[in-house]
Design a protein that fits this description.
Blueprint: H1 12-37, E1 52-54, H2 67-70, E2 79-82, E3 86-87, E4 95-99, E5 106-113, H3 117-131, E6 137-140, E7 149-161, E8 168-179, E9 184-196, H4 202-228
Parallel strand pairs: 1-5, 2-6, 2-7, 3-7, 4-7
Antiparallel strand pairs: 4-5, 7-8, 8-9
Length: 231
């Protein structure tokens, strides 16, 4: 009697080979999973070290304006608004810029600023001018306070120059003091500071930049004191 049911007859050797290979594959898969979960170094690339992050900051010591500005007395009720500094092309970045030849900017690979230098400058400009005692109040623009004068600045250059030894930091900032009511530019100036680095690396550049910043802030305070009195 014939049956309508079809029976598949697989070669016996196939089951033998499958039974032999399966435990090996299973063991390899299990070992691979454990290795990946455990961070097995031969299969994963080594972790890169974290970036070194630095602050552009001047010491908070009181600023003493030069002799030609010490006689200027603060005007009663005079309020100064400090705009967010702009930055020239190539310097509007948190990467730390260095140069070795003219017209070429390079950056450190694992060293950077905590923020763009222009953004880190904004509160320090306001604090430095407030500590100088020149104005009744100093605010960061935009502000709800009614200000009579506004200080606009632009970061022209902040770089570590390795074309000389020792390397040096070049820090250049331009400034405009503006009468808000008339939109008249009262005065403008460019401040350039250079400071030698103590060490030939990124941290040496950071220390030099912060020393240069202290001198630049003192000069900027004297500039504002001199020209605010004539407004």
């Amino acid at each position: 009697m014939n049956s309508n049911n079809t029976v598949c007859h697989a070669p016996r050797g196939l089951f033998v080979r499958f039974a032999t290979v399966t435990p090996i594959v299973a063991a390899f898969t299990s070992a691979l999973a454990m290795c990946l979960l455990g961070g097995c170094s031969p299969l994963l690339p080594p972790a890169l070290p974290p970036d070194n992050i630095y602050l552009l900051e001047a010491r908070m010591a009181p600023i003493s304006p030069p002799d030609d500005a010490r006689s200027v007395q603060p005007k009663n009720g005079l309020v100064l608004a400090v705009s967010m500094p702009r930055a020239r092309a190539g310097y509007d970045t948190a990467q730390m810029v260095w140069v070795q030849q003219a017209h070429e900017l390079k950056v450190y690979s694992r060293n950077r600023w905590a923020d763009t230098p222009a953004r880190m400058l904004a509160p320090q400009l306001a604090q430095a001018l407030e500590r100088s005692g020149i104005f009744n109040a100093v605010v960061q623009a935009p502000s709800a306070a009614s200000a009579m004068l506004r200080l606009d600045t632009e970061l022209i250059r902040l770089q570590q120059d390795f074309s000389v030894r020792p390397s040096r930091v070049q820090f250049t900032l331009s400034a405009q003091l503006i009468d808000i009511g008339t939109r008249r530019v009262i005065a403008s100036a460019e401040f350039d500071e250079t400071e030698n680095a103590v060490t030939e690396d990124a941290y040496g550049g950071v220390r030099a930049a912060n020393v240069a910043l202290e001198r630049l802030l003192a000069r900027l305070a004297a500039f504002c004191a001199k020209h605010a009195s004539a407004s």
